[in-house]
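User: I'll paste a sequence; please echo it back and then give the predicted structure.

Assistant: Echoing your sequence first, then the prediction.
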Amino acid sequence: MVAFRAIFRREFNVITATSAEEGRQKLEDNPDVKVIISDYLMKGITGIEFFESILEKHPYMIRIILTGFADQTAMIDSINKARVYRFLSKPWNEYDLRQTILSAIELYDARKDIANHQKELEKSYDSLNQFVHKASNEMRSTLVSMHGIVRLASLENKGEGTMDYWPILEKGIMQIDLQLRNIIEHYESDQHIGISNQIDFTKVVDRCRQALDSFQDFTNINMNVAVRTLEPFYNDPFRVQLVISNLLNYVGDQINPEKGTISLDIEIIDAKNGVQIMFTDDGVGIKNEQLSGLFELILSNGSAQDISLYLVKQAVENMNGTIDVTSIPGEGTSFNIFLPNNQSEANASSTN
């Protein structure tokens, strides 16, 4: 143990223990240990039994046994029970042991990366399932309403009366189309590789407004856009457009019926290492009890904007940004978004 520490302490962070109990405690105190090496014979316990005892709490740790004898049956049994990575004969060779440790560290890092990617994948699938469930419920609700209107129209005695139903049907069709677009955008956002390009926010806002013209009546939205960015800004154009488009869609549904119009101020300014995007309206506002779950997928009593804001939150987080919201019921809502500037990444990719 003394020789091991003396040889390897400058290359690795070496932690030693003289018993299995002390070893378990050291692992509790140092959860980031990647490689553990044990003698086959310990005080009152074998190294294999010790490794078995820590397997559940430390599944990714790479295990190496030092042994003075070679029993093939015991080795195979140890690999199966305690997931031993390598057996090294005593007395150990410094070069062989060093190479084994380095290989073990690489294996540990690879295992952790795979485990982390697996968790991200599971989270992504769960998120997608919830999203599709939510969108499907909303589209079905709209279709049921449209079907009822069609039946009412068919029962009208006077042909003129049916004309009142067509705007409602048209709105329902547009809502379904918008939900399908949201599903497509959500999928594309998850699949999209976030290549950073320079973004012209004035053009992005205009493009988003034009895309929503068939869904929103912008004559009722008094929009004031102020872009005050001096530094070139780089990030994912697809997700930036998704954020602005869905916030515009959300604001369009917040018009106070008593006013018949809504004022919207969009301000985009430079911030430290990024930009700040602020959407402020004087619409109906959000009740305090609804703020905490505003960006979640609510599967009952939900509406189209629930999905819009969910998409916004997902896109912002995928760009490593943040989003905050403040609102006063009856007075309006303000969204404050920070997005980091990935100019250095964009420059690096362009030079490769």
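The chain has three domains: 2-92, 117-191, 194-352. The domain at 2-92 is CATH 3.40.50.2300 (Rossmann fold).
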